[in-house]
Amino acid sequence: MFFSRMKLSSVAGFTRRFGTGLHAGANIVDLLRAEAKQGSARQRDALNDLADQASQGEQLHAAMKRSGQFFPPLLQSMTRVGESTGRLERTMFSLASHYETQLALRRAFIGAITLPMLQLIAGLGVLSLLIWILGVLTPATGGQMSDVLGLGLRGPRGVLIFWGYILAILALIFGSLWAFSRNVAGVQNLIPLLYMIPGLGPSLQTITLARFSRTLALSLDAGLDPVRSIQLALDSTDSDYYRAASGRVEQAIRGGATLSGALEAASVFPDDFTSRVEVAELSGTDAESIDGLANEYDERAKTAMRAIAGLASGLVWATMILVLLFFIVRLLMSVMGLYDQALQPI
Questions:
Q1: Most buried by CB count within 10 Å: which residue of 43, 152, 319, 340?
Q2: How far apart are CA 304 and CA 201, in angstroms?
Q3: Which domain covers residue 44, as residue numbers?
């Protein structure tokens, strides 16, 4: 199927509605049947399967596991803990808040860069129109119109070539992002270097730590053991760079290390973060202390996302301005060249 995993917006809506239904005392099977009436075809099939298995007495987390990777690992693990502790309703509400925060951050970022992207597309559209006109119009003296853009592109064919270049650049950008997300050739090992980029690096690290700390807080509060809690939190970063630290964390905890000691042994977290975890541990239970830390990093993540959106918006603006300046200069040079030719003695 095209959607191999449940979309973030769908997970957020499902957990919120499911928790509300449980709070109202509704039957789990009835809730699942109702949820199966919306969403993608893959989602409807998965939820119908859950309802079928739940009606046969199967636990919800076990049914989710049989659906493969469609349901996020965090949702599966937290559902298992919620069912075993009798706190499934509270678990669903906690998950809903977590996923809604992630969704809000994503939407804020998209909203911030939408206008600059539309303006960039409009600018490229104007250039495409000019290229098309250069191939359609014919000067009074015959021949072709002067190549004022200096690209050697004219007419419909020139427009296609122009957009071919643009699509090639976009393919390179998105291909690089895809390769990074899939850790092709171990490229995620360069994450420490990425974090050193002024403005962008610290913001990305803050967002990652916010996701990690929130997942860790949810897992500990639900009653998961520290090893599994940290493993889920590492997985929530969607980065093999962090996931690779799972073995070191487990070894440290089984060796008697505290939570902060285990994170320090992971060697992927900044000293400031592990120090804050250590202070939080001294101020209360693991679940309570990490929850407070997660709240702090949630606020930091919002600021970081605004910073990244600002950088992305600025980059789009700068690209648009540079492109337009380049073609304006080329146009002026072409016009000045025509004037020079006109002033030459016959």
A1: 43
A2: 10
A3: 8-100
Query: Residue 62 belongs to a domain with what CATH number?
Result: 1.20.81.30
pLDDT at 312 (0 to 100): 84
Handedness of CA 216, 220, 223, 224 (dihedral sign): positive
Q: Report which DSSP code applies to 71.
A: S
Residue 41 CA from chain centroid, whole number: 23
Q: Which of 204, 5, 2 is closest to 99 using CA atoms? A: 5
Q: How far apart are CA 73 and CA 243, in angstroms?
A: 13
What is the total count of domains within the chain?
1
Average pLDDT value over all residues in the chain: 87
**Mean pLDDT (whole number) for 237-246:** 91
pTM of the predicted structure, to 2 decimals: 0.77
117 or 145, which is more confident?
117
Window from 14-23, 75-84, 91-100, 169-178 with minimum mean pLDDT: 75-84
Q: Tokens 């693990």, residue?
A: 77
Give the pLDDT score at 1. Answer: 43
Listed residue (74, 66, 104) closest to 91, CA to CA:
74
Q: Residue 317 — very low, low, confident or very high, per pLDDT cuts 50/70/90?
A: confident
Q: Residue 76's closest CA among 85, 66, 86?
A: 66
| SS3 labels along 100-164 | HHHHHHHHHHHHHHHHHHHHHHHHHHHHHHHHHHHHHCCCCCCCCCCCCCCCCCCHHHHHHHHHH
| 177 found inside a domain | no
Q: How far is CA 303 from the centre of its chain?
A: 16
Nearest to 115 by CA among 301, 306, 309, 325: 309
